[in-house]
Amino acid sequence: MNWDTICFNGSAFIAGLFLLEFGADRFIDHTAIVATRLGVSQTLIALLTAGAEWEELAVVVASVLQKRSSLAIGNVVGSSISNILGAFSLGLLFYPGRMVFDRSAKLYAAILFLITTIFTIVALTTGLGKVVGGLFIAAFVVYLVSIGYGIYRGVLDAPERLDSDSDSDSDDDEGGNGSDSEVQRLPAETSPLLANGAQGARSAHEHSLLYHTIQLVLGFLALSLSGYVLSHTAASIADEFGLSNTVLGVTVLSFATTLPEKFVAVIGGARGHGGIVAASTAGSNIFLLTLCLGVTLVAGDQVELADSVVPFELLVTWASSALFCLLVFTGSERWVGGVLLVLYVVFIVLEFTVYRR
Fold it and tell me: Cα dist. 355→35, 235, 247 in Å?
């Protein structure tokens, strides 16, 4: 075991996480601004920026390109588990009282449970392949169109990002005016630290469309580079410790790449925004188990993918989704968050001991 190699790759892994978060924030925020300037539907902006795991997709694509398909699918499965047992649980723990969810959150949770059930059944019976991957990508498109139509018709509430929610709260405190709504639509260029909404509105128009387009491209490049760094360093660390790419993807990589979701859950729960916590969790997992999984199956090495995920991991994925759906429909107390967190720790321990491969 070469500790110099481990330390170097560990440091690069941590640096890659910072670059990943920077790239994701830059890409999402400036995508929203460019879309707004071009008159793109706010519904589409909400769907593309809230609950969309672009960080995970970057890691998946980079892993597949490096012939590490097992790392990609491990990250997808591990992240879907981590979002519920490791992030949603924190939202429950920090929520001041009993968390009750609205109709939109329940629908998102039901859709997630349906997708997870289909994924689990297919993986345990017929197996995963290119055709299945194509169907999951198609399912993502159908989901996007259906939810977008539902939001457009007013049947559903659009998924929200916590930063835009906090901005709107601060705007409301200032009294609210026409420019405040413009500020809320441009999350990257507003801040709760601004003196007032008008100042935020002025700053929102200081930069040209070209500037925001360049920032969007820079965010995309940062995402791509960080995905390469994370997948490469994770694979190197796995080799040094004698772990499979799948185990490292299910545990360390997925935990690290879902840190933003954990942060959102803590802040959202503490501020009493249970709907945001639930929508973020469900939206993220739907994105993971449709688009990210589909890309992995279509572009990945079929031989390597065949034995990557064991039934234990599939069952934990399904059970966590079922538990999440149950809690959203019935409501939940804070102590349940503690139970979920303990279950996540047990899962990680079992991965490194019993299911180490």
Answer: 45, 18, 8
Report how far residue 354's alpha carbon sits from residue 336's, in angstroms, rounded to the nearest whole number. 26
Query: pTM of the predicted model, to two decimals?
Result: 0.74
Q: Give tens-digit pLDDT for 173-228.
A: 444 444 333 333 444 333 333 344 444 444 445 788 888 888 878 887 887 777 77
User: Phi and psi at residue 332, in whole multiples of 5°?
Assistant: -150, 150
Strand partners, 332: 99
Closest CA to 245 of 50, 77, 120: 77
Nearest alpha carbon to residue 283 among 316, 324, 251, 336: 324
Write down all domains in the chain, each with its CATH number in brackets: 3-352 (1.20.1420.30)
Q: Would the CA dihedral through 199, 201, 204, 208 be positive or negative?
A: negative
What are the tens digits of pLDDT across the range 47-92? Answer: 555 556 777 788 888 888 888 888 889 889 999 999 999 989 998 9
